[in-house]
Amino acid sequence: MSRAVLVTGAAGGIGRAVTGRLVDDGWRVLAVDLEPGPGGPGEPFAADLTTREGNRASVDAALERFGRLDAIVPNAGFQHVSPVEEFDEDRFDALVALLLTSPFLLARYAWPALRASGDGRIVVVASVHGLVASPFKAGYVSAKHGVVGLVKTLALEGASQGIRATAVCPGYVRTPLVEQQVADQARAHGISEERVLEDVILAPQALKRMLEPAEVADAVAYLLGPAGAAFTGAPFVMDGGWTAA
Predict the structure, then answer these.
(1) Is residue 71 within 8 Å of 79, Cβ to Cβ?
(2) pLDDT tens-place string over residues 157-201
(3) Cβ contacts of residue 118 below 8 Å, gap of 6+?
(4) 109 an active-site residue?
(5) Phi, then psi, of 175 in degrees rounded to 5
(6) Could you say which DSSP state residue 198 is in?
């Protein structure tokens, strides 16, 4: 029987690419999003992942649909760009809930099934911002740093139970979320949108290009496959040289 995986934030961007790649690889995929897009690969399930109920319902739906759960890919996220003294407190809470608490809850609720799989995998789509910081992103950077630490803990606890955990840490990826940041960054830095890509978005990278969602999907598929069995705990960094300096 083919392996089963739960992917969050699956309606667009990286999540949609991951879902499509895993379906092509023969996985049975429960694609989860707040508002799943029509016509996407996999079978969409709507859930609010900022709540405990939404995370538990997602795991329960995967187990009901597939009878097993071999992997989870917490990917759902959003961004908010603002100086710290103006940073909306509710947005900060929501970022932490979706980017950090949701991966914890999904891992907690899925843990027995991942252990029963005998080869359980947790691949969190984190960010280079789990390793370094940027101004005006207090909520996002804090949550992503936290989820990289969470993955390390899951890896240590899971090693003796046949569960591996990894955080994929890409630089900027060409997604609607990043495209929206161009305008936000222009306002925050007081520069034109034309200058944002060169002077802000790609400035820290040695390779001056954004990743494509399919490249991140390839990394997730690798970590979920046989060749990914040696990876656990350490971040899987694909940042174009951002953290090399």
Answers:
(1) no
(2) 999 999 999 999 999 998 887 777 777 778 877 888 778 877 888
(3) 162
(4) no
(5) -130, 165
(6) I
